[in-house]
Amino acid sequence: MITFGKGNLRVPRWSKRVFLVAGGCTPFRKYFPEYKLEELVMMAFKMMLEENDLKRSPKEIKDCINFAVYGEFADHFQDQLLCEAKVHDYLGLDPLYNVGIKTGGATGGSAVLMGAMAIASGYANCVLVAGWERMDEVDTRTGNFYISTAACKDFETRMGRIYSSYYAPMAKRFAWAYNLSEITRAKVAVKNRGYAMSNPNAQQPGYHTVEEVLASPISAYPLRFLECCAMSTGAACVLLCDEEMAYQLTDKPCELFIAGGSHTLRVADRRPMEIPLLPHEYPGQYDELLKENPRWPGFESFLAARFAAYLVYQMAGIKNPIEDLDFVELHDAFTISDIQTYGDIGLRPYGQEPDYIESGDAYYGGKCPSNLSGGLLGTMHAVGATGIWQAAECLWQIQGKYDYFHGHEKWWRRAGKEKPKDWKSLQVKDAKQGLWVSHAGVGSHVTVGILRKAW
Amino acid sequence: MSKKIDETQVERPLSTEYIGTPHELFDESENYWVIKWPRSLVHRHTYGLLTPFFRALTQGKLLATRCTNPDCPHKSTWLPPRADCPDCFERMQWVEVPAEGRIYTYTMVDYAGIGIEMKTPYWQIDVEIEGVDTIFKGYLLYGKPEIGMKVKAQFRTDKPTHTILDIYWVPAEE
């Protein structure tokens, strides 16, 4: 059993409080030839400046920015090294310093974390965090291969050359260990793709049935196509501020808490670990479970997600996530990874993850709904943008602006779509606090962020 | 090394010749052009200190690395191998491990990424090997996998690929 040193478990303490005040994004598409990459980032940036009820003009806000963090998953996709410089110049932000952040699927979350660190340290008081991915320069199977090089090139990539083939064994093992049915898995796809029907920016919205999901083609058994996210092109950004700047720019800032965790690139290398306990868990709680399945986190769970939650719940004073959080945005790149995470972040105890779906808690109107944005399955996974876009969706929920950003005709027009006649609002009433998970690899990097109403 | 050119010695004016291949349009509309940008690349990739592992596969042996440092808190055995112990940072030792194990989990790969070297669909399996602290990914040559099923390794000693695909698994008798 691997144990952790006291220093390893230190909870981050920031020198200054950090706030998130605005967000923007593009529509997300499989193929987006109308715009170059930097033009897409500009679209998201302008939306952030102009549409968030900020108390200063876009030019005045631009004059406040003093640092930028950019998220991009893979140079393979952009085919442009130093893309950050190109985007930064295009946004007119020279000579401010900027850095590019890369942590696979968690790139967006990591970019927000780095931006938050800049605020917390005092290096900056107004930080742009923007992310993007242009996955449409190559065909889907080439894209699948590129992504699979984020598995170990010596020992894994040649097996499958597609990421679903690294999640599918986890799905198989999880089902074996914790009695997860295919139907529960399919319900996640039905739920999130259904919620995407309300999102004008969604790439693959749809009202599906469990039967349709399970009848869709197999990618890597048992995962079906409708259980996997798609290649996506688009951009997103958020604006982070210190306390003083936040209230100068908006009457509705959200305080931000965020932390990260990591684990091996290869699931295979995960030796049994001690489980860092969340505030609502107790010593000995998992003794029985570990007797039956002693390899925790094994192929069932993600140490990186558990560790990030362990830190951020202490930073934010979360006592019991299912009670304290009004909604969550999870990294549903695959149905199974979504379900695995319920245990890691304590929405359910380990071993009881499927109950979060089956109980109804995960649905709109439920105790703690998840992925009302449509998530990765329904709306987008333009990888470098994802964790940033999720933060924006969380902000808008807490600000009570879900209906504006999803229901206003202008966004449907921008996306080249007609607003559905039966459009449904998914605004959570009186939402005060939400969480999002940004997740890489088979759990190599995970950030967990919390936004809290601060007005 | 190309010959160094002295600018003053160039007798005739240089003219620039385009020697590339014109790019075709992949897609076009009134508002945009999308060009085709083909390329073919060769990388030179080293197996570094793990070279003995890949060489051993071509000789029909399965090697792992083990930490033998008496002060190491875990003394783990690693497969995939790694040269240096992450627990105590000492160089590890090569050990031959049994070429048999049990299926820990599996998948059937149906839709694979480009360049896949196995004909799809095929069974990809993760194998638990006694005495090894990690789980080892591979593929099953034939048969239908079950969690807990016993399998044994075989090796591509004839015409090796010089990759991890030089080892594969087949069902073993209980």
Please describe what this structure looks like.
The complex is a heterodimer of chains A (455) and B (174). With 455 residues, chain A is α/β, with parallel strands linked by helices. Chain A has a domain at 19-138 and 232-249: Peroxisomal Thiolase, Chain A, domain 1 (3-Layer(aba) Sandwich). In chain A, 38% of the residues lie in helices and 15% in strands. Chain A contains 19 helices and 11 strands. Chain A has helices at 37-50, 58-64, 75-78, 83-90, 107-121, 140-148, 164-178, 182-195, 210-215, 243-249, 287-292, 303-316, 321-324, 335-344, 354-358, 375-379, 383-398, 402-407, 409-414, and strands at 19-25, 67-72, 98-101, 126-134, 218-221, 223-224, 233-241, 254-262, 327-329, 433-439, 445-453. In chain A, strands 3-2-4-7-1-8-11-10-9 form a 9-stranded mixed beta sheet, with helices on both faces. Chain A has a two-stranded antiparallel sheet with strand order 5-6. In chain B, the strands form 3 sheets. Chain B has a 5-stranded antiparallel beta sheet with strand order 8-7-6-9-10, with no helix packed on it. A 3-stranded antiparallel beta sheet of chain B has the order 4-3-5. A two-stranded antiparallel ribbon of chain B has the order 1-2. Chain B has one helix spanning 51-58, and strands at residues 25-28, 33-35, 63-66, 77-78, 93-96, 100-109, 122-128, 135-140, 150-155, 167-171. In chain B, a hairpin with a 4-residue loop joins strand 1 (25-28) and strand 2 (33-35). Chain B is built from 1 helix and 10 strands; from the N terminus they run ββαββββββββ. Chain B is mainly β and 174 residues long. Chain B has one domain (48-171). The A-B interface holds A 2, 33-34, 79, 137, 139, 141-142, 144-145, 147-148, 152-156, 158-162, 164-165, 168-173, 176, 217-223, 225, 266-271, 299 and B 27, 29, 31-32, 34, 37, 45, 47, 50, 74, 76, 78, 80, 104-117, 121, 124, 126, 133-139, 147, 163-165. Strand 5 of chain A pairs antiparallel with strand 6 (100-109) of chain B, so a sheet runs across the interface.
